[in-house]
Design brief:
Elements: H1 2-22, H2 29-32, H3 47-50, H4 64-67, E1 77-83, E2 86-88, E3 91-95, E4 99-106, E5 112-115, H5 117-121, E6 124-130, E7 133-135, E8 142-145, E9 150-156, E10 161-166, H6 174-177, E11 181-187
Parallel strand pairs: 1-4, 3-11
Antiparallel strand pairs: 1-2, 4-9, 5-8, 6-7, 6-9, 10-11
């Protein structure tokens, strides 16, 4: 009976250790001894590799010295609105290396999400406000815009590419309820040719 109880406790500890390892956490050595083949388990991917929506966001940055040169009152503006669950415009073009003020007005009576993880990781967000209130965290993947409110972002288009955005809290939600979306194109900055 005692051996059966010890085996049951070992089995529970092994399951807990396996859950910790799959989640990217380290288990104490005592737990690892209950998992057969434990030395191979740390090479398994963490939760971020298995579910990219939960991977920590890493964002581009711009030097504070360069930002001091920007007159935000004179930078190009991108104005987008959400009306009847659709973004307008659905295609936005920017140029790499340029600062922008990007405004999204929600004209609907429900909160909308501007989900654009790949966009947000490839731009340098300088300032984010929602309804005039500054948001401290500028390394984000989604902006939630309450009904009849505006989100304003001061940003620098750091890395060229095509970046999709959607009105979903995560990409997998599109299988359930659809969702409006579009694309942001950051064009490569070209230096003028001299002849």
């Amino acid at each position: 009976m005692r051996k059966a109880r010890e085996f049951g406790n070992a089995k529970k500890s092994g399951v807990i250790g396996l859950i910790l390892l799959l989640g990217g956490c380290e288990a104490p050595a005592s737990l690892l001894s209950y998992i057969p083949g434990a030395p191979a388990l740390p090479s398994l991917p963490g939760i971020g590799a298995l579910l990219p929506e939960f991977d920590p966001v890493k964002c581009a940055v711009v030097s504070p010295k360069a930002l001091k040169q920007v007159n935000w009152a004179r930078v190009p503006q991108v104005n987008m609105r959400i009306r009847n669950d659709e973004f307008e415009p659905m295609i936005v073009q920017m140029t790499q290396g340029w600062p922008y003020t990007f405004r999204i007005r929600n004209r609907d009576d429900r909160t909308h999400a501007f989900n654009a993880k790949s966009f947000f990781t490839n731009i340098a967000m300088v300032r984010l406000t929602i309804d005039g209130k500054r948001i401290d965290d500028t390394c984000i993947s989604t902006v939630y815009i309450p009904p009849m409110k505006t989100a304003e972002m001061q940003l620098v288009a750091a890395i060229d590419g095509h970046y999709e955005f959607s009105d979903e809290w995560q990409r997998t939600a599109s299988f359930i309820g659809g969702g409006a979306g579009g694309v942001i194109i950051i064009e490569e900055r070209r230096t003028p040719q001299r002849y």
